[in-house]
Amino acid sequence: EAGVAQSPRYKIIEKRQSVAFWCNPISGHATLYWYQQILGQGPKLLIQFQNNGVVDDSQLPKDRFSAERLKGVDSTLKIQPAKLEDSAVYLCASSRPLREGNIQYFGAGTRLSVL
Amino acid sequence: SQQGEEDPQALSIQEGENATMNCSYKTSINNLQWYRQNSGRGLVHLILIRSNEREKHSGRLRVTLDTSKKSSSLLITASRAADTASYFCATRQGGSEKLVFGKGTKLTVNP
């Protein structure tokens, strides 16, 4: 089966600009996650979708970050405007929580550099 | 906030040696999982241990869980250069589907 697809792989922008990331989860996975991973740290959950509904967005900086998952399949994460501290890898993951104890399958990530 | 804390932060060993990484966590859990991340890549699931299990094996991996001490260890036996990566523990709490990751252990296996 195909894995989690993310694009772009790399993005360089200047502060105050906007950026968007795209994720296509594994087919049949109802749950989709966006994580932020700052260099040298573990992934931090930004938002969790179950189908096209938001389950947890408690750590999403809602003044600048937004995410949507139309039709319950692929998803986009947007930052507007970007700050220097947003430089990180943005990881998308998907899972079938009711099975497998919520093992998550990750994409390769998008590395964002904000200058 | 991060639930798990891995120890050590970095570990360097020779090929063929065993590598042991530890993870401590703060609250009661449903299960604990270990993931590997190669440089510049996403995380890959390695092994899951449930809260009512004490030890689990998968190939060269051995995981232990001590819920009374809120700690887990990952042992990689007969390490290979290809095991060079960062290793993260992640805990699933109660009825939540959310995984909370630690900061990771960076393992280097020298050929």
Can you give a write-up of this model?
- The complex is a heterodimer of chains A (115) and B (111).
- Chain A has 115 residues and is an all-beta fold.
- Chain A contains no helices and eleven strands.
- In chain A, the strands form two sheets. In chain A, strands 2, 4, 5, 6, 9, 10 and 11 form a seven-stranded mixed sheet that branches.
- The model of chain A has no long low-confidence stretch (mean pLDDT 93).
- Chain B is mostly beta strands and 111 residues long.
- Helix content of chain B is 0%, strand content 56%.
- Chain B contains no helices and eleven strands.
- The model of chain B has no long low-confidence stretch (mean pLDDT 92).
- The interface between A and B is medium-sized, with 26 and 25 residues.
Briefly summarize what is shown.
Chain A contains no helices and eleven strands. By secondary structure, chain A is mainly beta.
